[in-house]
């Protein structure tokens, strides 16, 4: 496979991963529009996201095991078409009871086999070398495509008009784009894991046992937990700039968009740094998370810095958090987890890694409610601790990998002598 084709396929996979999750999280852009068009309240809208989040957590591991027994291409295409169909159903009904069923099924269509299959497909397309750069390209395309689809759906909503028709049009627009990407995958994505077809495709408990009893996988899961917590947690810089620093809500929101979407385009740069300068994603993580921790501590303890300086400082955690998040899955390949266990491993580490979504908003919300503006310092110091734990975890994984490689070399040398 040529480099150009490799990069184009990674971009296509990024488009698939970016757009399929736009619809389950459609409320992030169309919050008030969903309330008015469905005639529901905030609690009911929150229930949809909670149902989806719980469903995803339950399905990550079994979906990962099943994804190892399927062709990645088939898993991705089925998931994309399924999500597109659910978006059409929602857009045509805009009914809360139907929406509950849709969001339950979205966990099946977008998380069950899709998540593990997309991570496996990136590794198959990108190869074992330059993993950081490959995941960086994927996440750059992921963030950009998600942003573009949201802007497109928002434009369609405004063109059609407010209310139910606009909401229906926005949902169907998302469905059409997701469906088109599924067709592109059918046409262009090769069956690089075709050898799976010759194997026993039934999920096996031993696959999960191999993952669970691997100490490296547990530490990887901890690093993923901290990484996603930081990726999600830097969003608190948006209200911080408005509430504490005095930046206008509009400017703060614009800076938030830069942190949430634009900085994900820096993931390839982070991957190049890992591959070319550190020759290891784990070594780059060790240094990068220390930089991230220091930047958060400085913001937490700063009290008299000029507004412009704080605004610039607030961008550093976003650059680092999104840059490191964008290449985190390359540490699975660097840890020499067998490709046959990639899906099960992805499911397991995702189960633990995405738990911050279930815990952090409530904990941080209570901190801010009780401590008011002073609570932001507490939040940022907690996030700094996350970064230091991620750095330490990266060191541990790196040492475990070195120890395993050393044992393998000694064993190979011993077998050579015996022969």
TrEMBL record:
<feature type="transmembrane region" description="Helical">
    <location>
        <begin position="251"/>
        <end position="274"/>
    </location>
</feature>
<feature type="domain" description="Major facilitator superfamily (MFS) profile">
    <location>
        <begin position="8"/>
        <end position="402"/>
    </location>
</feature>
<protein>
    <submittedName>
        <fullName>Transporter, major facilitator family protein</fullName>
    </submittedName>
</protein>
<feature type="transmembrane region" description="Helical">
    <location>
        <begin position="339"/>
        <end position="356"/>
    </location>
</feature>
<feature type="transmembrane region" description="Helical">
    <location>
        <begin position="281"/>
        <end position="301"/>
    </location>
</feature>
<dbReference type="InterPro" id="IPR050171">
    <property type="entry name" value="MFS_Transporters"/>
</dbReference>
<keyword id="KW-0812">Transmembrane</keyword>
<keyword id="KW-1133">Transmembrane helix</keyword>
<dbReference type="Pfam" id="PF07690">
    <property type="entry name" value="MFS_1"/>
</dbReference>
<keyword id="KW-0472">Membrane</keyword>
<feature type="transmembrane region" description="Helical">
    <location>
        <begin position="137"/>
        <end position="157"/>
    </location>
</feature>
<feature type="transmembrane region" description="Helical">
    <location>
        <begin position="46"/>
        <end position="67"/>
    </location>
</feature>
<dbReference type="GO" id="GO:0005886">
    <property type="term" value="C:plasma membrane"/>
</dbReference>
<dbReference type="InterPro" id="IPR020846">
    <property type="entry name" value="MFS_dom"/>
</dbReference>
<keyword id="KW-1003">Cell membrane</keyword>
<feature type="transmembrane region" description="Helical">
    <location>
        <begin position="169"/>
        <end position="190"/>
    </location>
</feature>
<dbReference type="InterPro" id="IPR036259">
    <property type="entry name" value="MFS_trans_sf"/>
</dbReference>
<feature type="transmembrane region" description="Helical">
    <location>
        <begin position="376"/>
        <end position="398"/>
    </location>
</feature>
<feature type="transmembrane region" description="Helical">
    <location>
        <begin position="100"/>
        <end position="125"/>
    </location>
</feature>
<dbReference type="GO" id="GO:0022857">
    <property type="term" value="F:transmembrane transporter activity"/>
</dbReference>
<feature type="transmembrane region" description="Helical">
    <location>
        <begin position="74"/>
        <end position="94"/>
    </location>
</feature>
<dbReference type="InterPro" id="IPR011701">
    <property type="entry name" value="MFS"/>
</dbReference>
<feature type="transmembrane region" description="Helical">
    <location>
        <begin position="307"/>
        <end position="327"/>
    </location>
</feature>
<keyword id="KW-0813">Transport</keyword>
<feature type="transmembrane region" description="Helical">
    <location>
        <begin position="7"/>
        <end position="26"/>
    </location>
</feature>
<feature type="transmembrane region" description="Helical">
    <location>
        <begin position="211"/>
        <end position="231"/>
    </location>
</feature>
